[in-house]
Amino acid sequence: MTVITNNNIKSTIALGALHNVLDPEIGLNVVDLGLIYQLDFDEENKKIICNMTLTTQFCPMGESITDGVTNALQYSFAEYKIEVELTFDPPWGPDMISEEGKIFLNR
Q1: 26, 37, 45, 52: which one has the fewest Cβ atoms less than 10 Å from its Cβ?
Q2: Is the pLDDT assigned to residue 11 strictly greater than 90?
Q3: DSSP letter string over 2-30?
Q4: What is residue 94's three-state secondary structure?
Q5: What percent of the chain stands above pLDDT 70?
Q6: CB count, 10 Å around CB of 23?
Q7: What backbone phi and psi angles, to 5 degrees, belong to 82?
């Protein structure tokens, strides 16, 4: 799992917050599940753009997960506007799960 970012320090803080956002169906957090692709920090416009995916395009919990991501980032970076962009390119696959996530899922 590799998250692309333009600010490693703030990305570490953001990923720490996103570890608290769980996929409600799987019970694993969105970071270890490999759903977060990119975090960009626009300092001039005080905006964070989170590029992420879901396990499927028809994930029934998609809105709940993206709301959780938005809320977690907003809580940690109150002065920033949060934008969550969904992408399915590349599509999510089980190979995107972190080693910690695989242990959690007993894989």
Answers
A1: 45
A2: yes
A3: --EES-HHHHHHHHHHHTT-B-TTT--BT
A4: helix
A5: 98
A6: 20
A7: -110, 130
What are the tokens at 13? 């803080």
Given a cut of 80, is residue 100 above it in pLDDT? yes
- Runs of H (alpha helix) within the chain: 8-18, 62-76, 99-104
Count helices and strands in the chain by DSSP H and E runs: 3, 4
In the numeric block, which tokens belong to residue 104?
């959690």
More confident residue, 4 or 49: 49
Per the CB < 8 A criterion, the answer to whether 55 and 33 are in contact is: yes
According to DSSP, the β-strands at 47-52 and 36-42 are antiparallel
The Cα-based distances of 65 to 8, 33, 58 in angstroms read 23, 12, 13
